Amino acid sequence: MESLVIMDIAKDLFWHNKRVFVTGATGMIGSWLVNSLLKKGAYVVALVRDADPMSLLFLSGDISRVSVVNGALEDFYTLERAINENEIDTVFHLGAQTIVGTAYRFPLSTFETNVRGTYNLMEACRIHEKLVKRIVIASSDKAYGDHEELPYTEDMELKGRHPYDVSKTISDFMAQTYHHTYGTPVAITRCGNVYGGGDLNWSRIVPGTIRALLSGQCPIVRSDGTFVRDYIYVIDVISAYMQIAEHLDDEITHGHSYNVSNEDPKNVLEMVAIIGKLMGFENLKPDIQNTAIAEIHDQCLSAEKARNTLNWKPTYDLVRGLKETIEWYRSFLKN
C-alpha cells in the first residue's frame, strides 16, 4: 500500500511546473485536459483561435489561469513562437476540425487544419528539440478507415478514404514520419467517440440526444441507427493522454500509437435507448433521418496495447459516464 501511495505522489509531481502547450484548448477534450494539468501544477499555454464564451475553458474560469496564444494551426510561426517563447517541454496536439459532415461539405479547410496544422506543429517541435521532450498527437479511429475485421489494433493499415478520415490518416503518418526520420519524441492516440460535459456540438449523438430529451423532443439520428461506434468518457481519455505523455520519458514508447477505448461498442439506436432509459424517456422514439454521408459503418478499438504497456484502463463504464454527462447538461441547459 505504501508503494502505491508513493507512485501516486510521483505521478502528481511529474506535472508540477511542466510547461505544457495544448492545441485545441477550447474544445471539449482540450478544456478537460487543461483543467487536469492545472490541478497537477503544470504551467499551461493554450492555443486559442476563436474565443468561445461557451467553451468549458471559459465557463470554468481556466482561461484566466493559462497563458493564451491567439492564432491558428495553419500559421507555422504562431506555433513556433508559442513553443520557443514559453520554453515548452510537453505538447498535446488536440486542435483539429473534428466533424465528419463539415469535412464532407468543404474538405479544404479540414485538410488545412488537420494536415497542415499537424506538420506545422511537428516541425516547430523538431526545430526546438532541445526544449520539447514529449508530444502526444490526438489521432482518431477514423484514421484506420473501413476494415472488415474488428476491433482495430494498432498494427492495422491506416486507410482513410473520406475527407475527414483521410485528414486523420495523413496527420497520423506525419507524426510517425517525424519520429522515424528525426527521432522526435512523439506518441499517437486513437480514440473512438468521446463524450462528456462541455460538448456543444449538437449533431453528435450524446449531447444531441440529451438536449432533445430535456426539451421533450424526439432525438435525431442522422444515420439509419445501425452504425457501430466506441463511446468513451472524457475523463478516461484525459487519463490516457497524460499517462502516455508521462511514459514518453522512456524512449521505448517513442513513435508508438495507442488505441483508447473501453471496448464496449454500441450502435446508435442502442446509445439513444440507454440515454433515454437513464433520463426516464424510454418511450420517446428517435427521428431516424438516414442522411449520413461519408461515414464508416462499423468501428471499434482494442485497447490491449495500452493496458499491457502503459497499465492504462478506463475507470468509467458507459452508464456511469453517461449519468455524469446527463447531469452536466441538466445544469448547463437550465441556465
Tell me what you see in this structure.
The protein is globular and about 60 Å long. Helices cover 44% and strands 14% of the residues. The relative contact order is 0.13. The N and C termini lie far apart (44 Å). It has one domain: Rossmann fold (3-Layer(aba) Sandwich), CATH 3.40.50. The protein is an alpha/beta fold. The model has no long low-confidence stretch (mean pLDDT 95).
List the SSEs and their pairings.
Blueprint: H1 2-14, E1 19-23, H2 28-39, E2 43-48, H3 56-59, E3 67-70, H4 76-85, E4 90-93, H5 100-105, H6 107-127, E5 134-138, H7 163-182, E6 186-191, E7 193-195, H8 205-214, E8 220-221, E9 228-229, E10 231-233, H9 234-247, E11 257-260, E12 266-267, H10 268-279, E13 287-288, H11 304-310, H12 318-334
Parallel strand pairs: 1-2, 1-4, 2-3, 4-5, 5-6, 6-11, 7-10, 8-13
Antiparallel strand pairs: 9-12
Helix pairs in contact: 2-9, 4-6, 6-7, 8-10, 8-12, 10-12
Strand order, biggest sheet?
3-2-1-4-5-6-11
Beta-strand content: 5-15%
How many separate structural domains?
1
Largest sheet: 7 strands, parallel
Based on Cα principal axes, name the global outline: globular
Let me know the CATH homologous superfamily.
Answer: NAD(P)-binding Rossmann-like Domain
CATH topology call: Rossmann fold
CATH architectural arrangement: 3-Layer(aba) Sandwich
Number of helices: 12
Instruction: Kindly report the oligomeric state of this protein.
Output: single chain
* Helix residue percentage: 40-55%
Low-confidence stretches: none
Element order: H for helix, E for strand: HEHEHEHEHHEHEEHEEEHEEHEHH
In whole angstroms, how far apart are the ends? Answer: 44 Å
Mean pLDDT across all amino acids: 95
Radius of gyration: 19 Å
Give me the count of strands. Answer: 13
